[in-house]
Amino acid sequence: RMSLPKITTGSKNLDTLLGGGIEVKTITELFGEFGSGKTQICHQLAVNVQLPPEKGGLSKRAIYIDTEGTFRWERIEAMARAIGMNPDEAMENILYVRAVNSDHQMAIAEELKEIIPKENIGLVVVDSITGHFRAEYPGRENLAVRQQKLNRHLHQLMSIAELFDVAVVVTNQVMARPDVFYGDPTVAIGGHVLYHAPGIRVQLKKSRGNRRIARVVDAPHLPESEAVFAITEAGIRD
Ligand code: ATP
Ligand code: MG
After folding, report:
1. Which of 26, 121, 163, 216 has a CA that sits 20 to 30 A from residue 182's CA?
2. Pocket of ligand 1 (CB under 6 A)
3. Residue 86: which CATH number?
4. Which residues does 187 contact at the CB level (< 8 Å), separation at least 6?
5. Measured in angstroms, how far is the CA atom of residue 231 from the centroid of ligand 1?
6. Closest C-alpha to ligand 1, atom 20
7. What does residue 118 show for φ and ψ, rounded to 5 degrees?
8. Ligand 1 binding pocket mutation candidate from 73, 205, 231 (most atoms within 8 A of CB)
9. What is d(CA 51, CA 60) in angstroms, rounded to the nearest whole number?
10. Alpha-carbon distance 99 to 101, whole Å?
11. Which structural domain range is residue 36 located in?
């Protein structure tokens, strides 16, 4: 695993927690409550994937599938500037797609097979992976169908990660449950998309001010520890 290329998050603490950064050929699920930093990390990764390998990138481009309309080009500009990257180039190297519903989201995932090899893609972001599915299949009575569709979507993304050597990062909003943060995360409200799938699940939690706490869940090859990072105007930092 150590030999797989990785993308830096911008935070040394978070990178260390992840064994060096966000891995290619892997799905990484960022889950946590609103404002915990999922979207900000996704923006940062879409910038950092463009860095040369010696600076923590892959010298590749990103595809950003936005299902909630929370993507901001201004954040890309600010994050790029902060690391001395040309902001216009940084933006050109992000292929932005807005997914309007779950069928559209899955259709986009299907198209990735054609897009990725042509466009030098190193990172695929799906922010969030669960939003449309939860809205369209609400409640317990739809749980089975929702899970079935989500699983199909996950398999699309898994085969993409493996076929094309890209990192796939998905987000999943989960209600704050302080009582389960250190316990069994699978009982957290909303459940976890990667519960039955291979990948790395990173739980994010708000701390004081701009501080956030990350914890890797159920990854035997990574240490059972947590990392503190910050969301700043410049991006994700220690
Ligand atoms: P949700 O579940 O609602 O999508 P999220 O986990 O995606 O939440 P983010 O949008 O990543 O949360 O984080 C929002 C936080 O990021 C804000 O509360 C703010 O503290 C911080 N933030 C956003 N933009 C900036 C900025 N320009 N400068 C500093 N901090 C910022
Ligand atoms: Mg978000």
Report:
1. 26
2. 32, 34-40, 70, 173, 210, 231-233
3. 3.40.50.300
4. 177, 180
5. 7
6. 210
7. -80, -25
8. 231
9. 8
10. 6
11. 1-237
Q: Dmax over Cα atoms in the chain, in whole Å?
A: 51
Considering its fold, how many domains does the chain have in total? 1
Find, among 96, 95, 5, 79, the residue nearest to 45 by Cα.
Answer: 79
Residue owning tokens 């879409």: 46
What's the 171 CA to ligand 2 centre distance in angstroms? 8
Distance 210 CA to ligand 1 centre (A): 9
pLDDT digits (tens, 9 = 90+) for 127-168: 999 999 989 998 888 888 988 999 999 999 999 999 999 999
Sign of CA dihedral 14, 19, 24, 27: negative
Report the atom number in ligand 1 closest to the C-alpha of 30.
6
| Test site for ligand 1: of 11, 40, 70, most ligand atoms within 8 A of the Cβ | 40
Q: What pairs with residue 216 in β-bridges?
A: 202
